Amino acid sequence: MKTTFAGAINFGLRRALEDDPKVVLMGEDIGRLGGVFRVTDTLQKDFGNNRVIDTPLAESGIVGTAFGMALRGLRPVCEIQFDGFVYPAFDQIVCQVAKIHYRTQGKVVAPITIRIPCGGGIGSVEHHSESPEAYFAHTAGLRVVSPSNPADAYLMIRQSIALDDPVIFFEPKRRYWDKADVDFDQLDRGGGLALDRARVCTSGADATVVAYGGTVATALTAADIAAHEGHSLEVIDLRSLSPIDFDTIETSVRKTGRLIVVHEAPVFGGLGAEIAARITERCFYQLEAPVLRVGGFDIPYPPAKLERHHLPDPDRILAAVDRTLAA
């Protein structure tokens, strides 16, 4: 079935609601409006306003209420309208949701999925195009994931809701309208990867490029261009940002000897730094060049007219390829 990225999430939420009466959705304008990006379109009409709940404009209240629901046995799925709006709920997420399992010595779980449209590329205004994944990946007790295509969008939202762990689910908003054929039934029968596994998208021999979320398509475009220039890039879609599947990255780097990490978030203190450090430890004698990072600049997200200069593009990835191959 041909579907968009947003449509795949919608169908995943629909099936979760059908399969488990304990699943509830909550967020600003997700009901009658169907969400800003229409990801939850028609769900309130079909499941009622007791299971698809329009909330006040109060992110701390949304997550705090979801936390209470989870303690009472429900499986809430929260939508944060935009990435930059999650900060009022940050205390609830990192101090309560992330720690309850540890604090109770495993006796209490918090099966909460927090959906966050993230990243730029849609010409939006301030606080609507951020990439805050490093804050949450740094917090023990949270799973952090980001799909890059419609099939994974469906599979990973289903897997996230079924987990007893709290999951931060980053949705690259500039990919919401990407289309692909998705066999939903096959994915439900176990036809996809586990939630914490990375995917090798293209096989290559000259350098490994690791990306996630919205930058995977950019990395694949760069790989296509590089192939015409005689360079073979192995592109890995990270999928899970915490935990990270370092084994898949290590296997690739042991073969290629070079690694480039791509993400929209600023390079300073980003996930690319952690990946670079871990792979340097694991593959020190196999690396032919330093690990390179391609990402956003260390600035607040720029105005919409300038964002194309801020976001990683194929040219910046290919410049890193040239640097690593020349080392």
Provide the descriptors you would attach to this structure in a database record:
327 residues, alpha/beta, seven-stranded mixed beta sheet, 13 helices, 14 strands
Verbal overview:
- The protein has 327 residues and is of the alpha/beta class.
- It has helices at 5-19, 43-47, 59-71, 90-97, 100-103, 133-137, 150-162, 184-188, 215-228, 246-256, 271-282, 307-310, 314-326; strands at residues 2-4, 23-27, 52-54, 75-79, 113-118, 143-145, 167-172, 179-181, 199-202, 207-211, 233-237, 240-242, 259-266, 292-296.
- It has 13 helices and 14 strands.
- It is 37% helix and 20% strand.
- The model has no long low-confidence stretch (mean pLDDT 97).
